[in-house]
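thread: overnight batch results

M.L. [08:02]
morning all. the overnight job finished for the chain we discussed friday. pasting input first so we're all looking at the same thing
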Amino acid sequence: MSQNFSQLRKFVSPEIIFGAGCRHHVANYAKNFGARKVLLVSDPGVVAAGWVADVEASLQGEGIDYCVYSDVTANPRVEEVMGGAQRYLDEHCDVIVAIGGGSPMDCAKGIGIVVAHGRHILEFEGVDTLRVPSPPLILIPTTAGTSADVSQFVIISNQQQRMKISIVSKGAVPDVALIDPETTLSMDPFLSACTGIDALVHAIEAFVSTGHGPLTDPHALEAIRLINGHLVQMIANPADIALREKIMLGSMQAGLAFSNAILGAVHAMSHSLGGFLDLPHGLCNAVLVEHVVAFNYSAAPERFKVIAQTCGIDCRGMSHPQIRQRLVEHLIALKHAIGFHETLGLHGVGLSDIPFLSHHAMHDPCILTNPRESCQRDVEVVYGEAL
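M.L. [08:03]
and the structure it wrote out:
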């Protein structure tokens, strides 16, 4: 009997521990992997916030040796990954723990890839390029957004060429994610807004992606419901741990959805833009999201209608052009409510930059699952609208 392979679905995720205070148990998980020496990857801001000290205390409590590597910038760079890999080898580490936002987590993933394969990180750009398992990897996110802690994506910035590379492989899925909403208390409102909008875009893009399916849809919709319903409140009440938990849970579910359904043009264009200008990833998404939704709507109208309904828009008696308009207006209003009034032009992007940006966006793996097939000219038009 012939099998219809188009109906087969796989779903990858790490072991997930979710809840306030779970960061304090990191040593138990490191011990499960037989850790003798841990490379602890972070960045100066997370060190200053005190979260690294909590991880160190946990490791010390179990008598596990470690060294700290915190030379990671906001968009993790090729040389930071290679430097971390050298440190891992020099210190004879056997487990990697990262605590931080998307940058330390992606850097840690990159370090694992390099030490496992013994090759330069730039050699792994693309889909399913990993051949050897990475060392045990435990990630502790301190932002509610990037979902690097549950995903098969690694995004590294190559600043020599002003480009970001994407590595997508189930070999990049961490072994353990300790998702502790308390760690997001140190986010400033701008970072909360950036990472929150990133998570919302993950969920929207995953739901309309050509790779979506019954295993990813429930996660995507629940993420939209949680983030749309609580992000504005959470930014206004930063100390409210119950709101933090809701956004963190929404971010995690968005991550599970996009890691398995992949993304679309917002992320392809955002990766290109973030590499070009070295801007926060969430900010790039925020500038582009409503323009891409407007462009894509006609390719998946029924699914966009479900997104609109999940955002609380009453679609009864409305035509698709009306729903499209309402959804775009809703996304703009949400952005304004959390403090985003950005355009690309405000960040120095000019018409002459658009061909370069569009060329690189067309080579990003995320463009492959965008619901509307797009050529470089389409992408140029959308960038133009976001100026």
